[in-house]
Amino acid sequence: MSQEDIERGGVTVMQETDPSWIPHLFKKRVCTTFVEDSFSNGGLCQCGSMRDTHPSGALGDNFSTAIVSHWDSTQHSCEQPTDAFGELEFAGAGKRHSYFLRLSSTTDPSWVFNIMREHWKLAHPNLVVSVFGGEKRSEVKTWVQEVLRQGLVKAAQSTGAWIISWGLREGLGRCIGEAVRDYATATSSVTLSKVVLIGIAPWGLVKDHQQLVNPEGSFPAKYFVKNAARNSCSLDNSYKAFLLVDDGTIGRKGGEVGFRARLEEYISRQRTDSASFDIPVLNMLISGEASMLEALDISLKNSMPWLVLAGSGGLANLVCDIVENMQSAPMTSTGGAEKEEGTHNMELRERLAEKIMKYFPSEREMDKLVDKVLSVYQNKDLISIYDAEQEGSDDFDTVMLKVLVQANKKQVSGITNPHADELRLAVTWNRVDIAKSELFNGNIDWKYDDLKDFMTDALMNNKPQFVRLFIDHGLNILSYLTYGQLEDLYDSISDNCQAGKLLQQILNERKDEFSNDKKCRISLYEVSQLLENLLGEVCQPFYMSKRCLDVNTNSTKRKAFKKACQVLQGECSYRKSLCEHPWLCLFIWAVLQNHSEMAIFCWEMCGESVLTALGGCKLLRELSKEEIETEAKISIKEMAMKLENMAHDVFSMCYQTKASDSYKLLIRKSNMWGDATCLKMAIAADARVFFSHDGVQSLLSQIWWGDMERGTELWKLALTLIIPPLCYTNLIKFRNEEIAEREKSLMVPPPSATDCHYGETVFSFNDIKQHSEAEQDVSNNIRRPTKGTPAYGKPKQPFLLSRWRQFWYAPVTTFIGNVLMYFLFLILYAYVLLVDFKPPPPDGPAPSEYVLYFWVFTMMCEEIREAITMESKTFAQRLMVYAQDKWNKFDVLAISLFIAGLCCRMFSWSYNMGRGILCMDYMVFTLRLIHIFAIHRQLGPQIIILGKMIKDAFFFLFFLAVFLIAYGVANQALLYTYDPSPERTFRRVLYRPYLHIFGHIPVEEIDTDKYWDRDCTDNLTLINEGKEPCRDTSHNWLVVILLVIFLLVTNILLVNLLIATFSYTFSKVQECSDTYWKFQRYNLIVEYHSRPNLAPPFIILSHINNFICKEPSTKIHHFAIQIKGREANKLVKWENLQKENFLAVEGKKQRGTDSERLKRTSAKVDGVLKQVRDVDRRLQSLEAEMEFCTSSLQWIMDTLSQSSTAKGAKAQPTCKVVVSASLDREK
C-alpha cells in the first residue's frame, strides 16, 4: 500500500493472499521513557513493564526521567509497525477461526471499520450494542446472565447486531460468550454465525499475548493458555474478532476506553446495509466499577444513548439512583433562584458525593469522581433504565428500540417524525412483531407519505410481513407503484440472482448499441425482453403498450429495439405513470428473484389467481433451466411446484362451487396476462398436476365429444363416417338444445372423479364458434336464454344443418375419420410395396402408386397448413414452434423420406435405393400410430412408459458397446493374426459378439480345438486376395476365458441391470402415468380440434375451400374466448372469492397444527405476564406518588412553621419515578 493511501486513511487495497499492507497501516505502541513506579523500588515503570524490558534509549536520560512524575501514553511511547495480526485458532476448542489485530490507541477508527467489513468480511451491522460492566464473575448475578442469554443475544440475532464487549474470559466478557454459545445450542448452529461478537481489550492485559506476535502475520496463530483460571484475562473463543488496543502499558486497564469511544462514534455515522439511516449504537451498562465512569462520560458527550440494567450492582445502581432520585434544584421561593445558584450546585455535589460514598466507599479521588458523575448527570436524558423483573427478558429488543428512538427524538426534536424513526429501526431489524404491538396498535394515524419510503425498503430487502402490514394500514398500492418505481425495484435485483444475470445480459446489448450512454440502467425494456424470453408465445409482451414504452409488438425485433432505445433516451415520461396491474408487476418481480413469501403475498393480493399462479410456475421453470447452482435450481423448482399446487387447489375450489364458471376460467383470454388462457399457460408451464384435475379433464372431454353424448361406441361413429346419413337417425345420441342450455346454467360438479369423465356436456365447439360470432355482446358467451328464445339470440338453424354440424364439428369425429383413413393409407402403402411396385418409367408406376403419391401430397399440405397457422409473429418463429413437437418432426421425416424414395425410384440406376427408402419410410409411417393411440386411456400411459424405457435403453447400449468392442477386438486379434478383409473383421468384432448375447455361439469358430470344415489358408498372398485365413491356436485357452467372462458380464450383469432399470422406470412412471397421460392428451385434442373435418386425401377439399375463401377456419379459435364487461368483472370477483375461501381453509389448517397452537398458548401466557407486570408497575407508581405526597406535605408543614426569611432545614423531597417509566412512550 502506498503512503498516499495510508495518509488518506482509506483501506483501498485489501488482498487476501498478501497482508503485508497491514503493518504499514496499523501500529503498536512501545514505551520510550522509563518513569519509575514509586511502589516498585525502581524496578518497574509506570507503564507496567520491568526496567530490563525497556530499550536503552528509554533509560539513558536520567535527568528527564527524574523530573517526570506521571507516565503518559502519548508523550512517553512511540508507534511502530504492528507485529500481531491475522487469524486466531484456540487450541483444543474445536471452533472456527477468529480474527485479531494489535493496534495503537490512536488509530483512526475508519481504518478499523474498513478492515472488519472488507478484509474480515463481517456482516454489515443494523445495530451495535456496546456492553460495559463488571470485570469479576462474582459481580455478575444469575438473573443478569439470563438477561444476556434471553434478551441481549436473542435481540442481537434477530436484528443483525454487533455486540462489542471486553473480549476476555473474565467477568462480563465471559458471560456474554457463554450466553452466545448457550443460545446457539438452544436454537440452531446457524444462529451462532449470525451473532457477531467483537472484543476490544488492552493488549498489555491479555494473558500470553506473546503467542500472537508474528511480524508477518499469523494464519492462524495457535492460542493456548495453560491451566487457565475461570476468571483469567485470556481471550474468549466465542468472539468473532479481537481488537487489541495497545497504549504502551502492560497489565493496566483503561487503555482501550478512548479508542472504543471513537470507534463507536464513527460507526454511528455510517449507513446501514439498506442505506436508509445511520447505524444505531447503544451502550449498555451492567454492574461496573467506578473506573468505568470515564467511558460513560466520554460516550455521553458524543451523544450516545445508554441503557442501564437496574439492580445489577456497582456503577449501574449508582447511575439508576442518580437518574431516578436526583433533581437539579430544590423548591425555592420566587426571586431567590439567582442568589442561591452557587449554593444549590454545592448541595448537588454534596448529594452526589453521598451517593458515590454509598456505592463506592473505598474510592479515594472523590473530587474527580464527583466531577465525572456531575457530567453524567447533566446528560441523563440519554440514559434509560431497564428493570428485567418488570419488563422481562423477552422484551429486551423492544426496550432497545424504545431507547434508541427516544435518544433520536431528543437529538432531532421537531425535525423528523419520532414514530417514523421507530418504524425505520423496526423495518431494518425486520421485527414486524414490534411494529404491530408498538406502532400499529391503533394509537398512531399513519399516512401514505409516512409509509411510502418504508414500503420501498421492505420490498427491496424482501420483508413481506412489513409489506402486508403497510397495506393493511393505509398504503394504497395503486398510488404507490409507478413504472419508475418498478424500474428501481428491478434495478435493485442482485447480480447473483439468475434473473439479475439475464437482465444484465440484455442491458449489455443495449449498452453495446449506445456506448455513449453512461446513465444506462435496467429499464422496463430489459424486463419485457426477459419475460418474453421466458414466457415465449404464451402471451403478448409486457410493458410495450402505449401507456408504457409505446412499442409496436407486431414489428420486427430490430425495429422494436430501436423504438425502445429512442424512448429510453428521451424524457421517459412513462416512469411517472401508475402501473396498470401493480400486484401482478410485484408478483412477477418477486418470482424472478425466487422470493417465495413475497411472491405468495403478491399472489394473494392479485386478481386472476389461477392464471397468475400458473404464470409464476412457467417463469420459475424456465429460470431453473438457466440456473447452474444445484441448490438454487432445487429451490426454484420447489417454488414452481408450490405455485402449481396453489393453482390446482384454487381451481378445485372453483370447480366444486360452480363447474360452468370454472370452465370459463380455463379458456378465457386474460387482459392482465396478454390474452393468455389458463390452459395455454398450463401446457407451457408443464403443469401436469393442474392438468390432472377432474375439472380440466372434464372440459377437455366435453370439447372432444362436442354435442354427442360421451361414451358413444366407436363402431357407431365409424359406421356413421362410412354412411353419413346415419347421423340423422338415433344411432348416435345428441344433446337436446333446451336441455343443454339448462345444463349450462345449472351445472354442478360430478359426484366423483370417475363420473366427471362421463357427465353432461357444458362446452362444445359449436358453443365456442357461436361465441366468436357474437360480437355485440361477447360477455354472454354462455348465456341463459329466456323461455322461448333461442340460444345466443339467433334464429334456430334447420335440423338437417344443425345435426350435420353437430356430428362433423366434434373433434372425436375428426379423429376417428383420420384413424380410419390412416389405416387405409397404410394398407395401400403395403399393397404397393408388396404387390404393385412397378419398374421405373415408362413401365411404372402403377395407378395405385399414383393414388399413394396424391395421398402423401395431401398429408404434406396439411402439415404446411399446420405450420403456417401457428400463433407466432414471424414465419421463422412459426417453424420453430412447429418443430418443438416431436411428432411434427416425425411427420417431416416420413414425408421427406417418401419424397426422397419417390425421386430415386423414378430412375433405373437408383431404383433399388428408392425402393429401400420407401420400405424404411413405411416403418416410420407405421410408428406414427403410437401418437394416434395416445388418446386411449389404457394405451396412453403404456406409450409414456415405453418412451421412458427407450431412453433407459440408450444408456444400456452405451455400456454394452464398451464390452462389445473390448471383447470383439481382443477376440479377433487372438484368433486371427492377419485378416485384411474389412467385411469379415466388422462382422467378427461387433456382429458376432452381439449374437453371443442371444445364445448364438459358433464353438467351432472360436474354440480351435474343435474341427472346422471351412477352407482356409496361411498364405498371405491368398489371404490378401480374399481367401479365409486360418485360426491361430496358440491362444485358444485365453479366447475361451474371454468368452466366459463376456457372457457372464453381458448376459447376467448388463441384462439384469437393464431389467432392474426398466422395473424402476415402470414403477416410477406407473404411479403418475395417469397424470402424464392427461397432460399429453391435451395436445392431441388441440390437434384434432384445429384440424379440418375431412381426413386425407379428402382434406384437400378443405384446403381448397380455405384458399378460395381466404378466411381462416373458425376452428383456429380453439380453447379461447373473450369475456368483457360485467360478465368479466363478475367472473373475476367470483374467482377472488374462491381464492379467499382457499386461503381461509389453508389458514385454518395452519392454525390447527401443534406448533401454531403452542405459539398461540405462549403468546397468551406472555400477554398475561405483561398485564401482571403492568399492574405491578402501576402499584409501584402509586406507592411512589403516595410517598412523594406525604414527604411534600411534611416539607410544607416544616417550612410554614418557620419564619418566611428562614431557610428550610430539609431539602425538597423528590418523586421516586418507577424504574421503567423512562421507557414509556411519550403520549
Automatic annotation (TrEMBL):
- The transmembrane residues are 807-832, 890-908, 954-978, 1037-1059
Gene Ontology molecular-function annotations = calcium-activated cation channel activity; ligand-gated calcium channel activity
Subcellular localization(s) per the UniProt record:
Membrane
* Limits of the TRPM-like domain: 438-693
Annotated Ion transport domain ranges read 821-1071
Give the membrane topology, semicolon-separated if more than one. Answer: Multi-pass membrane protein
Tell me the ranges covered by the TRPM SLOG domain, including all copies.
99-372
Is the keyword Membrane in the record?
yes
Which residues lie in coiled coils?
A: none
GO cellular-component terms in the record?
plasma membrane
Cite the entry's keywords alphabetically: Ion channel, Ion transport, Membrane, Transmembrane, Transmembrane helix, Transport
Please state the protein's primary subcellular location.
membrane
Report what the protein is called: Transient receptor potential cation channel subfamily M member 4
The source organism is: Culter alburnus
